[in-house]
Design goal:
Radius of gyration: 15 Å
Number of helices: 3
Helix content: 10-25%
Number of strands: 8
Order of helices and strands: EHEEHEHEEEE
Oligomer: single chain
Low-confidence stretches: none
Mean pLDDT: 87
Length: 158
């Protein structure tokens, strides 16, 4: 089982980004810390400046993304085994929190791309529901079926 912890400050950033995007899908990259076996905590995320449409979001590699990655790795003293790229996030403001066929294909392309060098990647799908941030997380790894993970929103009890 994979667990993804989303701290309060990251929840606030996501909520604001989703409010600003309205019905357009938006997304970015998740950067985090491996805190325990199967447990990752998000430390930073990017929000792609150009959002998508009502039905799609496509992440683009831009200079701002590269700079965000450089800054994160510098700030974490290049401890790649502890702090690294964790995966992707995007919103489904008008749809369920289930990955589309296109979402799955994109994630498998990432984990199978030798230039990316990721052994796995998480996909966090989010939306606002009655003004509250909700989400689901999925694990993708080369040669394996997608697995649903456990999303832990810090400060929110169930």
């Amino acid at each position: 089982m994979i667990n993804l912890i989303v701290p309060i400050d990251i929840q606030e950033r996501l909520t604001l980004a989703l409010l600003n995007a309205g019905t357009r899908e938006i997304g970015g990259v998740l950067l985090g810390e491996h805190t325990d076996e199967g447990v990752f905590r998000i430390h930073e995320l990017t929000v792609q400046p150009q959002g998508g449409t009502i039905v799609t979001f496509v992440r683009k590699i831009e200079d701002s993304l590269r700079q965000s990655l450089r800054n994160f790795f510098h700030k974490t003293n290049f401890e790649y085994t502890r702090f690294n790229y964790v995966g992707e996030w995007h919103s489904h403001p008008s749809f369920s929190l289930t990955p589309s066929t296109h979402d799955k294909q994109s994630m498998y392309e990432i984990v199978n791309d030798p230039n990316v060098g990721a052994n796995f990647a998480l996909l966090l799908i989010t939306k606002l529901q009655q003004g509250k941030l909700i989400g689901k997380v999925y694990l993708f790894a080369p040669g394996f079926e997608m697995v649903t993970g456990h999303l832990i929103m810090e400060g929110i009890s169930k």
